[in-house]
Each structure stands twice: as structure tokens, then as C-alpha cells.
Amino acid sequence: MKRKYWNEAVLVLLAVPILLWTLIPIYHLFLFSISSKDSAFSGALWPDHPTLRGFGTIARQEHFYLHHFWIQIWNSLWIAVAVGVLTLAIATSAAFAISRLKVKGGRTVMNLALFTYFIPAAFLAIPMYKAMGVYGLLNNRWSLVLAMVTLAAPYAIWVLKQASDKLPFELDEAARIDGATPLQLFRLVYLPLMTPSMVAIGTYALLLAWNEYLYGYLLLSHEQTITLAVALGHFIAADDSPWELLMATGLVYALPPAAIYYAFRRYMVSGLTSGAVKA
Amino acid sequence: MASVTFDSIFKSFGSTKILHGISLDIADGEFMVLVGPSGCGKSTLLRMLAGLEEISSGHVAIDGRVVNDIESKDRDIAMVFQSYALYPHMTVRENMGFSLRLRNESRKITEQRVDNAARILNLTNFLGRYPRELSGGQRQRVAMGRAIVRDPKVFLFDEPLSNLDAKLRVAMRAEIKALHQRLKTTTVYVTHDQVEAMTMADRIAVMNDGRIEQLGRPLELYDRPANLFVAQFIGSPAMNVFDGVLKNNLVHGLGTQWPIPAGTTAVEGQMLKYGIRPEHLELAAAGVAAEVVVVEPMGAETEFLVKVQEQAFTVVSHGRAAAGPGDKVFLWPAAQNAHLFDAASGLRIQ
Fold it and tell me: How many beta carbons lie within 10 A of that of residue B197, not counting itself?
């Protein structure tokens, strides 16, 4: 018993600093967003006159930097969802083909795809820009979608492949004997059993796109087409940035991912770890 | 219903040869058990019949039609796996009806046939449950239900009882046998358990190292094993076997002499393996001197582990123990039930 308490004490001692370390920046974000412009840098732990005015300004698009707020957050959402869905579609099919249908050369293709991670994404940005230019997709949402799917897919395929390797192969054999075609096997047996991993990977891809800045900044340039992440970057371009609005927008921007994480937290842990280690 | 034919089946994985020319005819409605130690190729043979394994050479035919190049789903077979392989996200009803759903069978007929199979297998109350909510025996029955709903030409069983505890295994054994007697569907059943093979089969194919050692009815194999492998594999406890030489119509071995069955074709001076089953040795007032090592009372019968010189023997006698550990006893072999094998080839001497 004593030992158990001791272990718990150590865990708590570790957890408290880590928690603070994680939460303090978020608290600052929150603090800024409810402060008036003058008191933003006062250093107080709680503003004298907390205000939600910033959020109203955002919603009504009443600031120069926020004139296109709603269309920009819509762009972010549209792109993130498209990346999530496309990545899932590609990665699930690939994982099924490699892991269950044992397509010849499948593993090689997967390893080649993973190999792209040796090159930092930032180095690929310019070639990607060039490619999108050739396709005439610059300043089009699809350019960012395609770029992000390219970046997310290898990892997604790998995780889903590991997860599907764990499904008993007898299930496929039973289904084949029961009369299932590969497509029926995919739809009626494989997809339902892969749902937890797919939720995790879909969320991963969605958030990757939602948080992306560099590629958005490069591939999209018009105020009506950029994502909110890029728009937030514009705030800093001014000499006298409206910090409280930047932080308030940032807070709004952080809410959907938090909500998604919360909704799928069960899948996130089991789904991502299930692929990580071979049991 | 249908007959099944294996014709000179070879199988190799890379350079490893698994099956060395298996030929086997299974009659319509027959319950055929493939039995052998693990790695003997019995499961591979079954999986070839199921269409889950490529055939390196030879032919497999169902009802006279060669099925080498026909997909599993078009072979009209149903298979029960060791791991049950139930679809975890489907209820018992959906599991059992899955094959009919894939064949676009009408809802009404599917329901009828699932209900019917559930009644046969006592699963009616579990149709709405998921596999994870069932016990091992129930899952096994669902797997069988999934097979019989199809009304296939051939049932395939791949070690279906291995994951069950001993008591349940005996019960399921009887259920499967009863099911076969009721449906009379041709059945190929793979197991490593010779008791399962003996109790269930119409005929048994004893396999070892990619070959069929002997094919026959259970008691044929028991009474007249074709070679040493079958002699020692079939029967529990296993047959006692030791080396000897034939001299003057007696086998000289273990420092003493053993009687032989009448009419044997063994020749004077031949090196032999002498085999005698535990129940064909009797503890008697005279015979081969032995010392009792262990006594295992089973109730109806008693198993003695005894030693003649350094050779261990198992003796089974009806009734209760008349001797204890350390006692000197005499073994009396029933000569007519002794088995003689050629020492070099291991083949039975008639």
C-alpha cells in the first residue's frame, strides 16, 4: 500500500508542472482575449475589466484584419474536412490492399511513401507550389487540400496498415467462403472493424490541415481564399498589432480542434497507439 | 451433398515441401477426419479444399468437378474455424445470415433458415447478441450455425474444438456428430486429437509429414495399425512398443520372452518392434516380471505405470488397484492382440 501512495505522489509531482507548463500559454491566450487593448500587457493574472467585446468584433467582422473572418474560417473548415475525408479514403483503401489483399509490392509502395518523411515538409513546399502552378490550382482550395493529403497519407496508411494487420485473417477467409467479393469484404467486414482507427486517423489528418500555416500561406493568397491560420499571420504584419483580437481569434480557432479531440478522445488513444506498436 | 476427391496433391511453400502426393476419396455423406501431429499438413489439405491455399500440383474435385481454379465462394462449401472467425460487429443472427445476404437471398428465406439453424443448435435465445457476449461453446455453435444455414455440399472443420475446455469439447463432439447424422452432409474434419478422430469419424486418414500413413475406419486403425506411427498415434494411453528378435516363435526382448499372435508371417531371426496395447496386458500370477512405478485410479479402470528392466509400460485393468508403487508384479500379454512391426521399415507384419 505504502508503495502505491509513493508512486502516486511521484506521478502527481510530475503531472503538476507538466500541466502548468501546458496550460499557462493557453491561459495567456484566454487572458489576452478578454482584456482591453490597453491592459493586455499589464501582467496581471486577471484583467481589471474583463470584456468579451473582442469576440463581438470578430463575429461582426469589424476590424480591418477580420473583414473576411467568416469566409476564412469556412475555408479552414472546408479544407480540413476535405483533407480528412480524402486522406481516409486513400489510406483505408491502401491499407486494405496492402494488409488484407496482400497486393504484390504493396509494402514497397508504403515504405516509399514513408520515405518522403525524410525530407522536411518545408523543403517540399516550393516544389509543391510549382506543381500546383502547373495544374493551375494556385489560389484554389484544392491546392491546399491536395498538398495536405500528400503529407498526411503516408503516415495514415502506415497506421491503418498496422491496425488492419491485427484483425484476424480468418475473418477474411470466413467472409470469402461465405461468398464475399473483395469489395463486399471491404465494405461489410473491414470498414466496420476499422472504425476506431479510422476516426483517429481522420481526426489526425483533419487537424493537420486545420493547423497548417506554411502551405496555406504559399498556395493561397487572396483574402477570400486563405484559411484562418494564414489570416492570423497577417495580424503580425502591422506595427501595432491588435493583440487582443489576435488572441480572441486564436481562441475561436482553437475551439473546433478541442471539440473534436474531446468527442473522439476514446478513439484517439486506442486508435493511434494500436497502430504504433506491434502486439 | 457431394463426394470429394484429392488426386496426387503436392504443396510446397518455397523450397519447403508440405504435402507429398496426397490421394484421398471421400464418399458422399461421409464424415472424414484428417488427424495427425501439428505440421503434418492436414490443415493445409483442408484449406486447399476450401480454396484458401494454392495447390502446387494435383487436383481437388468436389462432386466430380475439379475446383482448383474455382474461388472459395463458388465451391459451395462452408467452413468452421478454430478461432470461430465470427464477425465481431454483427449479431448472431447477422453472422448466421451473412452468406445468404451476400447471395441476395430474400429477407424471409434468410430469416427462416437462420431460425431453423438456431433451433437445431439451441441458439434461438441468443440471436440478438453479439459474439463477445457469448461463451466459447456458444460461439462455436454460432460458427456451426453459419455453416449449416448455407446448406453447403461439404462441411469443413479446422480444429473446431481446440479452444474449448475439456468438458465442453466432449459435449460439442457429440453435438457435431449428431448434427452430421441429422444433415448427412459430407464432412471433412481436421484435428490433432486422436480421441476426436476415433469418436467422430466414419473413416480416419492418419497423416504424418505430408503423407497419409493409413486410411480406414476407426477400429480398423486401432486393431490393425499399418505401421508404428499409426500404432503409437492412435489409442490412449498409447501402445507399448519395444525392440525384440523372433526366435522359436517367441519374441526375445527386455531380457525375457513374449508370445506372438498365431499365423504371423514374421521370420525366424527378424528384428522386430513388439507392440501391445495397455488393455492387452494383464497383471497376473505369472508372466513377465515388472515393478509398479505409479498407480492412477480412474474409477472404472486403473492405469499402472510399470517397468520391465528400464522400459516403461502402461497397463490398464478394469476395476480397482490390486498393486501399489514398488510392488513386484507379472505382466501377462494377450498374444492374439500383440502387434509386430519390422524394426527397419516400421511396417506391420501380418
Answer: 25
